[in-house]
Amino acid sequence: VVLVPGWPADAPPGSKRLIFIRHAEGWHNKHARELPNYHTDQLGLTEAYWDARLTPEGETQAGLISVKMQWRQSEGIPQLIAVSPLSRALDTVALGFPHRPDDGAPRPPVISTSLARERIGLHQCDRRRPVSTLKQDYPWVDFSELESEHDEMWMQKEVHPDPFNSTGCSKRAESLLRWLSARAESYIAVVTHWVFLTHLFAPFRHPQLLQPFDNAEMRFACLVPKTYADEAAAADRLRETPPGERDEL
Protein backbone atom coordinates (compact mmCIF):
# COMPACT_ATOMS: atom_id res chain seq x y z
CA VAL A 1 0.00 0.00 0.00
CA VAL A 2 1.01 3.60 -0.63
CA LEU A 3 0.06 6.95 0.90
CA VAL A 4 -1.20 9.69 -1.41
CA PRO A 5 -2.23 13.19 -0.32
CA GLY A 6 -5.89 14.05 0.02
CA TRP A 7 -8.85 11.75 -0.49
CA PRO A 8 -9.03 10.93 -4.23
CA ALA A 9 -12.60 10.57 -5.40
CA ASP A 10 -11.64 7.60 -7.59
CA ALA A 11 -9.72 5.70 -4.90
CA PRO A 12 -10.46 1.97 -5.29
CA PRO A 13 -12.46 -0.09 -2.80
CA GLY A 14 -10.44 -1.03 0.25
CA SER A 15 -8.61 2.29 0.39
CA LYS A 16 -8.32 4.00 3.78
CA ARG A 17 -9.22 7.65 4.29
CA LEU A 18 -6.85 8.96 6.96
CA ILE A 19 -6.48 12.17 8.96
CA PHE A 20 -3.01 12.62 10.44
CA ILE A 21 -2.95 15.05 13.38
CA ARG A 22 0.11 16.26 15.24
CA HIS A 23 -0.47 16.72 18.97
CA ALA A 24 -1.10 20.23 20.27
CA GLU A 25 1.61 22.29 22.00
CA GLY A 26 3.30 20.61 24.97
CA TRP A 27 5.41 22.22 27.66
CA HIS A 28 8.58 20.88 26.02
CA ASN A 29 7.60 22.65 22.77
CA LYS A 30 6.99 25.94 24.55
CA HIS A 31 10.14 25.83 26.68
CA ALA A 32 12.36 24.71 23.81
CA ARG A 33 11.19 27.83 21.98
CA GLU A 34 11.25 30.30 24.89
CA LEU A 35 13.81 29.26 27.53
CA PRO A 36 17.34 30.42 26.57
CA ASN A 37 18.95 27.54 28.49
CA TYR A 38 16.61 24.75 27.38
CA HIS A 39 19.06 23.33 24.86
CA THR A 40 22.37 24.37 26.43
CA ASP A 41 21.44 22.83 29.80
CA GLN A 42 19.70 19.87 28.13
CA LEU A 43 16.54 20.45 30.14
CA GLY A 44 14.61 18.13 27.86
CA LEU A 45 16.58 15.20 29.28
CA THR A 46 15.33 15.87 32.82
CA GLU A 47 12.33 14.17 34.40
CA ALA A 48 10.57 17.52 34.69
CA TYR A 49 9.45 16.87 31.11
CA TRP A 50 8.56 13.18 31.50
CA ASP A 51 5.55 12.56 29.26
CA ALA A 52 4.98 16.31 28.94
CA ARG A 53 1.39 17.52 28.97
CA LEU A 54 -0.28 20.30 26.99
CA THR A 55 0.19 23.98 27.75
CA PRO A 56 -2.89 26.23 28.06
CA GLU A 57 -2.22 27.30 24.46
CA GLY A 58 -2.01 23.64 23.50
CA GLU A 59 -5.37 22.99 25.11
CA THR A 60 -6.85 25.81 23.03
CA GLN A 61 -5.24 24.41 19.88
CA ALA A 62 -6.63 20.95 20.59
CA GLY A 63 -10.10 22.35 21.19
CA LEU A 64 -10.02 24.00 17.78
CA ILE A 65 -9.70 20.59 16.15
CA SER A 66 -13.33 19.94 17.02
CA VAL A 67 -14.24 23.20 15.28
CA LYS A 68 -12.27 22.16 12.19
CA MET A 69 -14.12 18.86 12.26
CA GLN A 70 -17.52 20.53 11.84
CA TRP A 71 -17.43 19.38 8.21
CA ARG A 72 -18.12 15.94 9.72
CA GLN A 73 -21.80 16.72 9.14
CA SER A 74 -21.17 15.87 5.49
CA GLU A 75 -18.20 13.50 5.80
CA GLY A 76 -19.13 11.78 9.05
CA ILE A 77 -16.87 11.41 12.04
CA PRO A 78 -13.91 8.99 11.85
CA GLN A 79 -14.78 5.39 12.55
CA LEU A 80 -11.69 5.06 14.74
CA ILE A 81 -9.03 7.23 16.36
CA ALA A 82 -5.59 5.65 16.66
CA VAL A 83 -3.42 7.57 19.10
CA SER A 84 0.08 7.52 20.52
CA PRO A 85 0.24 6.46 24.20
CA LEU A 86 2.00 9.71 25.13
CA SER A 87 -0.17 12.05 27.17
CA ARG A 88 0.07 15.11 24.93
CA ALA A 89 -1.45 13.07 22.09
CA LEU A 90 -4.13 11.58 24.36
CA ASP A 91 -5.01 15.05 25.69
CA THR A 92 -5.26 16.27 22.09
CA VAL A 93 -7.84 13.57 21.41
CA ALA A 94 -9.74 14.35 24.61
CA LEU A 95 -10.14 18.02 23.64
CA GLY A 96 -10.20 17.69 19.86
CA PHE A 97 -12.79 14.91 19.78
CA PRO A 98 -15.04 15.65 22.76
CA HIS A 99 -17.76 13.15 23.63
CA ARG A 100 -21.06 14.93 22.83
CA PRO A 101 -23.71 12.24 22.37
CA ASP A 102 -26.56 14.67 23.08
CA ASP A 103 -25.42 16.78 20.10
CA GLY A 104 -25.21 13.75 17.84
CA ALA A 105 -21.41 13.74 18.01
CA PRO A 106 -20.20 10.91 20.22
CA ARG A 107 -16.47 10.36 20.39
CA PRO A 108 -15.42 7.54 18.03
CA PRO A 109 -13.70 4.49 19.50
CA VAL A 110 -10.13 5.34 20.53
CA ILE A 111 -7.30 2.82 20.56
CA SER A 112 -3.76 3.59 21.67
CA THR A 113 -0.87 1.98 19.83
CA SER A 114 2.86 2.23 20.44
CA LEU A 115 3.30 2.07 16.67
CA ALA A 116 2.25 5.75 16.60
CA ARG A 117 4.44 7.05 19.44
CA GLU A 118 7.19 9.58 18.87
CA ARG A 119 10.64 8.53 17.65
CA ILE A 120 12.39 7.15 20.74
CA GLY A 121 15.43 9.19 21.63
CA LEU A 122 16.72 10.74 24.85
CA HIS A 123 14.10 13.40 25.59
CA GLN A 124 11.92 12.57 28.57
CA CYS A 125 8.80 13.98 26.92
CA ASP A 126 8.83 10.86 24.74
CA ARG A 127 8.84 8.35 27.65
CA ARG A 128 5.35 7.07 28.41
CA ARG A 129 3.76 6.62 31.80
CA PRO A 130 2.60 3.23 33.18
CA VAL A 131 -0.49 1.77 31.52
CA SER A 132 -2.36 1.63 34.84
CA THR A 133 -1.89 5.40 35.24
CA LEU A 134 -3.00 6.07 31.67
CA LYS A 135 -6.13 3.99 32.20
CA GLN A 136 -7.03 6.12 35.21
CA ASP A 137 -6.57 9.36 33.29
CA TYR A 138 -8.18 8.17 30.03
CA PRO A 139 -10.75 5.47 30.88
CA TRP A 140 -12.37 5.83 27.44
CA VAL A 141 -9.20 4.70 25.60
CA ASP A 142 -8.50 1.08 24.65
CA PHE A 143 -4.93 0.38 25.80
CA SER A 144 -4.99 -3.33 24.99
CA GLU A 145 -2.40 -2.87 22.21
CA LEU A 146 0.27 -1.81 24.74
CA GLU A 147 2.29 -4.88 25.62
CA SER A 148 3.76 -3.92 29.00
CA GLU A 149 2.79 -1.94 32.09
CA HIS A 150 6.00 0.06 31.98
CA ASP A 151 7.72 1.63 29.01
CA GLU A 152 10.03 -1.19 27.93
CA MET A 153 10.36 0.42 24.47
CA TRP A 154 12.15 3.37 26.07
CA MET A 155 15.42 1.43 26.04
CA GLN A 156 15.09 0.67 22.32
CA LYS A 157 16.49 3.96 21.02
CA GLU A 158 15.64 4.92 17.44
CA VAL A 159 18.61 7.19 16.74
CA HIS A 160 20.66 5.27 14.15
CA PRO A 161 22.05 6.15 11.72
CA ASP A 162 20.63 9.57 12.61
CA PRO A 163 17.82 10.76 14.95
CA PHE A 164 16.01 12.34 11.98
CA ASN A 165 16.67 9.42 9.65
CA SER A 166 16.17 6.46 11.95
CA THR A 167 15.99 2.96 10.52
CA GLY A 168 14.07 1.76 13.59
CA CYS A 169 11.52 4.57 13.46
CA SER A 170 11.04 4.08 9.71
CA LYS A 171 10.34 0.37 10.22
CA ARG A 172 7.84 1.19 12.94
CA ALA A 173 6.13 3.69 10.62
CA GLU A 174 5.82 0.96 7.98
CA SER A 175 4.30 -1.31 10.64
CA LEU A 176 1.73 1.36 11.49
CA LEU A 177 0.66 1.60 7.85
CA ARG A 178 0.29 -2.18 7.66
CA TRP A 179 -1.73 -2.08 10.90
CA LEU A 180 -4.01 0.62 9.50
CA SER A 181 -4.39 -1.26 6.22
CA ALA A 182 -5.46 -4.42 8.07
CA ARG A 183 -8.12 -2.63 10.15
CA ALA A 184 -11.77 -3.07 9.23
CA GLU A 185 -12.42 0.69 9.43
CA SER A 186 -12.07 2.72 6.25
CA TYR A 187 -11.93 6.18 7.86
CA ILE A 188 -9.38 6.65 10.64
CA ALA A 189 -7.81 9.59 12.45
CA VAL A 190 -4.21 9.13 13.66
CA VAL A 191 -2.98 11.44 16.42
CA THR A 192 0.79 11.30 16.66
CA HIS A 193 4.05 13.31 16.58
CA TRP A 194 6.15 15.45 14.25
CA VAL A 195 9.41 13.47 13.96
CA PHE A 196 7.49 10.21 13.63
CA LEU A 197 5.39 11.74 10.85
CA THR A 198 8.51 12.81 8.95
CA HIS A 199 9.58 9.15 8.94
CA LEU A 200 6.10 7.97 7.98
CA PHE A 201 5.78 10.30 4.98
CA ALA A 202 9.41 10.22 3.78
CA PRO A 203 9.10 7.21 1.41
CA PHE A 204 6.23 8.76 -0.56
CA ARG A 205 7.90 12.03 -1.63
CA HIS A 206 4.72 14.06 -2.02
CA PRO A 207 5.42 17.78 -1.37
CA GLN A 208 2.04 18.14 0.39
CA LEU A 209 3.02 15.45 2.87
CA LEU A 210 6.64 16.46 3.42
CA GLN A 211 5.99 19.96 4.80
CA PRO A 212 6.68 20.32 8.56
CA PHE A 213 3.65 19.85 10.80
CA ASP A 214 2.48 22.61 13.15
CA ASN A 215 1.06 21.67 16.52
CA ALA A 216 -2.55 20.44 16.17
CA GLU A 217 -2.32 20.56 12.37
CA MET A 218 -4.51 18.12 10.44
CA ARG A 219 -3.41 16.59 7.16
CA PHE A 220 -5.47 14.29 4.91
CA ALA A 221 -4.10 11.27 3.09
CA CYS A 222 -5.35 8.05 1.58
CA LEU A 223 -3.85 4.59 1.85
CA VAL A 224 -4.23 3.01 -1.59
CA PRO A 225 -2.88 0.00 -3.53
CA LYS A 226 0.48 0.66 -5.17
CA THR A 227 -0.96 -0.03 -8.63
CA TYR A 228 -3.44 2.83 -8.20
CA ALA A 229 -0.71 5.20 -7.00
CA ASP A 230 1.54 4.29 -9.94
CA GLU A 231 -1.28 4.88 -12.45
CA ALA A 232 -2.17 8.22 -10.83
CA ALA A 233 1.47 9.34 -10.90
CA ALA A 234 1.76 8.39 -14.56
CA ALA A 235 -1.39 10.36 -15.37
CA ASP A 236 -0.01 13.39 -13.51
CA ARG A 237 3.25 13.22 -15.48
CA LEU A 238 1.31 13.03 -18.73
CA ARG A 239 -0.75 16.09 -17.85
CA GLU A 240 2.43 18.01 -17.02
CA THR A 241 4.13 17.08 -20.32
CA PRO A 242 3.59 19.56 -23.18
CA PRO A 243 1.43 17.95 -25.93
CA GLY A 244 4.23 18.10 -28.49
CA GLU A 245 6.57 16.12 -26.25
CA ARG A 246 4.22 13.24 -25.42
CA ASP A 247 4.93 9.77 -26.80
CA GLU A 248 1.54 9.30 -28.40
CA LEU A 249 0.65 6.74 -31.04
**What is the rounded Rg?**
19 Å
Structural class: alpha/beta
Quaternary = single chain
Mean pLDDT: 91
The rounded distance between the terminal residues' Cα atoms is 32 Å
Q: What is the tally of beta strands? A: 9
N-to-C SSE string, H for helix and E for strand = EEHHHEHEHEEEHEHHEH
Low-confidence stretches: none
Strand order of the largest sheet: 1-9-2-8-3-4-5
Beta strand %:
5-15%
Largest sheet: 7 strands, mixed
Gross morphology: globular
Explain this structure to me?
- By secondary structure, the chain is α/β, with parallel strands linked by helices.
- Helix content is 34%, strand content 15%.
- The protein is built from 9 helices and 9 strands.
- Strands 1-9-2-8-3-4-5 form a 7-stranded mixed beta sheet. A two-stranded antiparallel ribbon has the order 6-7.
- Helix 2 (56-68) crosses helix 4 and helix 6 crosses helix 7 (194-201).
- The model has no long low-confidence stretch (mean pLDDT 91).
What are the salient characteristics of this protein?
alpha/beta; two-stranded antiparallel sheet; seven-stranded mixed β-sheet; 15% strand; 249 residues; single chain; 9 strands; globular
Task: Please provide a brief summary of the model.
This protein has helices at 27-34, 56-68, 72-75, 87-96, 131-137, 167-182, 194-201, 207-210, 226-240; strands at 2-5, 16-22, 80-83, 110-112, 141-142, 161-162, 165-166, 187-192, 218-224. With 249 residues, it is an alpha/beta fold.
